[in-house]
Automatic annotation (TrEMBL):
This is NADH dehydrogenase subunit D. It holds the Pfam family Complex1_30kDa. NDH-1 is composed of 13 different subunits. Subunits NuoB, CD, E, F, and G constitute the peripheral sector of the complex. InterPro entries: NADH_Q_OxRdtase_suD, NADH_quin_OxRdtase_su_C/D-like, NADH_UbQ_OxRdtase_30kDa_su, NADH_UbQ_OxRdtase_CS, NDH1_su_D/H, NiFe-Hase_large. Residues 304-554 form the NADH-quinone oxidoreductase subunit D domain. It comes from Haloarcula pellucida.
Amino acid sequence: MGTDETAMSQTVAGATQETHTDLLAPIREYVVDEERHLNAPAVVVRADEVQTVLSTLKAEADLDHCACVTAQEYADRYETIYHLRSYDDPTRELSVVVPTTSDDPTSESAAPVYPTAAWHEREAYDLVGIHYEDHPNLRRILLPETWQGHPLSRDYDQSQPQIVTYREHQRLLEDERTGPDRMHLNMGPHHPSTHGVLHLNVELDGEEVAAVDPDIGFIHRCEEQMCQSKTYRHQIMPYPDRWDWSGAGLLNEWAYARAAEDFVDIEVPEYAQVIRTMCGEFSRILGHMLAVATYALDVVSEFTAVFQWGIRDREIVQDILEDLTGQRLMFNYFRLGGVAWDLPEPRAAFFENIREFLDGLPEKLEEYHDMLTSNEIIQMRTVDTGYLSPETAKAYGCTGPVARGSGVDYDLRRDDPYGYYDELDWSVATEDGGDNFSRLLVRMREVEESAKIIEQCVDLLEGWPEDDREIQANVPRTIRPDPDTEIYRAVEAAKGELGIYMRSDGTDTPARFKIRGPSFSHVQTLPVMAEGEYIPDLVATIGSLDPIMGDVDR
């Protein structure tokens, strides 16, 4: 290493140590032990001091974003990990590790400090079996209440029968004043306005929504467990496409690639990074076009124009990605260390197709605005409905267009750079309204920014020297990270922050694989956003969140 490189390394190490010290200073007296996860420092704290530690970190260390909660069982203990970040600077990270004994897996709940932790802890209780004291509503979330045992616990008997008996629906509000105007409404799970197999228990007080209880788990497919049985190098990559079938699969692939590459220190060639960045933005356009098209269908039953325009423009992008990847939905194009193959030949024709799409996009977006955002009915149904304040968005771990529609200026492409984003000219789209209309505007503006990024990538790829087109790094055939190595890494997917936690046991398959889907946090906000509004407002609010239930249930 040269003198300049050594000095730079020492500077980075010094800055990291300074940040580490800064984060730990407010909670030093509560730290039982320290660990090092590859993405962040980690501290071990007692199970009966969780709320004290987390509230201190939130208030004094500015760690206001509980990005993910991971639960797992070891041979001698249970463990909960709170992955904390700062909305102002997501590279400012800390993992809070909370072990419990095997015979009494009980810990304080983080939900009083971070409301978003409520659903994460319900999942940890449901699948792993950890109990959380002071939790506002600790019950199963993915499995039926009648399920016996916890499927991710080491002593779970997979051969036992699971007979789920019928249980009468219960009212959400225990209110003695319940009278003829109070009604329970089942919305979904088979309903076009729930964007998938989402069931909402809705309590109506006359025409107003008194309470909403989202009921998820209908499409839980054990994606995390399937990834835990697959090898890092070859077998996991086909699965991320299936977490979000709106077309954003390449961004999902990137989430796994980023985590795995940082896990074993793989450096991706610059040329491949440009291709990845272009692919990621095409995927973002696919996701947002579907969101806008179906929103028109949800809110004004606009099937003949906006919906068909959205599908038309998605088809053009899918044609481009099919030329590149060979697939229209389950792309499986990214590889650890790069991409599967180079751009299709003849390259000039491929670039011409992309430029033709980009050249026609501004006029098409103007038509979208004429028919959608300028539509009086859309405005009446979306302006000032489904309000989500910036504080509430952060409390529930919202990211992506949902958070940016509330004025939360948080985008991992800029704030925790990866790929080629920090070399390009583009802007983060935000709106301050916090309502359904603002979230629609953010997605449409993001399509414009994605087009700017793609155009710059095409300019770079057109002029890239032929002898320097390296599409993959030299990756070992078999990957075996060191035992007990842990990492959490995320990318800015179309829906928001898509994170992956992995722990290694020294073999070529993960010991724990946890997916942090952005829609999981967004659906959790529905009760806050819908209370006091009307059923049509609830339909508009669901659509504005753009949830994909495979992303929620995994």
